[in-house]
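Write out this protein's structure.
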Amino acid sequence: SLAEENKTISSLKEELQQLREISEKQVQDRLATEEELKTLRSNLDDSEKFREISEKYENEKKSLEEEKNRLEEENKTLREAKEDLEKFRENFEKLEQQKNSLEEEKLK
């Protein structure tokens, strides 16, 4: 009766305390999980930004490589044109000398 009721009340209080502790732990776990999710989302955002930057870098690198190749080809063409021009100048000078020699021969 009264002793049994006190024992039951005490037992219920103990159970209630245990439920509070379990509930508190569940809340703490949930908060920790939410914090982990925030961190994971942040890392994912960082990862996405890194991927975008990497992609831009690779595109820029490719573009610069193409430009370098184009300039090297242009440089090669200009070198060849310079060599052709030098040969032309040499031939022109030779012809000029031959012309002068012929004119001198005519005068003699």
